[in-house]
Amino acid sequence: MTDGRVDCLTETIESAREHLVGEVTAKLIHDDTGDEAHRDYLREAFPDFEVIGQPTRQGFGGAIRSAWANLQSRPERFVFHLEDDFTFNEPVDLGLMQRVLDRNPQLVQLALRRQPWNDAERAAGGIVEQHPDDYVDCSDGVSDWLEHRRFFTTNPSIYRRSLIEKGWPDGEHSEGVFGIRLCENPTVRFGYWGCRTDPPKVHHIGAERAGSGY
User: Fold this and answer.
1) Within-domain flag for 212
2) Total domain count, the chain
3) Are β-strands 107-111 and 136-139 bridged in parallel, bridged antiparallel, or unpaired?
4) pLDDT for 2-45, tens place per residue?
5) Which among 20, 41, 21, 19 is positioned nearest to 29, based on CA atoms?
6) Which domain holds residue 198?
7) Domain harbouring 178, CATH code
């Protein structure tokens, strides 16, 4: 997901290529600039990606709806969702993440923890450290993850393609609204990949948000 920040996007894609482990059957860039000339540039710069988008800028929620519409007819069972301002701190095994989702139907997504970003997270020492009792340590003997019901995140994560059938909300704060709607099902859980004591697996590099409608 990108909105014109070529420097961030380039760094993100280079890092993903180096650190994501496992079979990837399709690679898409959803560009929300609304600028076809910019998309032509992206096609030349990243020829192994399919570049998609709408004729006009859609904003945060609209861009996700547009990207999800493109995914509806695709055969893949899983989506790895990546915004254009993250780099990876270590290898990430997509196959293991898929296996955990397959064996744990209560999990909507498995996300990768980033460094503390806002004041409250920095004061606590991290995202999980801010509300430690809300996270449950889980393991299947091979992989570890933390389950919670606090939020759905558009930070780097893997989820089932079937999730797009829920539809992304209109309006501002759509990320939070989507998570609240999912939690109407009392069995739903969200996950962070790795142990409680693991360092952040991704690094947020975008100093300022691009786009609108958060």
Assistant:
1) no
2) 1
3) unpaired
4) 999 999 999 999 999 999 999 999 999 999 999 999 999 999 99
5) 41
6) 6-204
7) 3.90.550.10
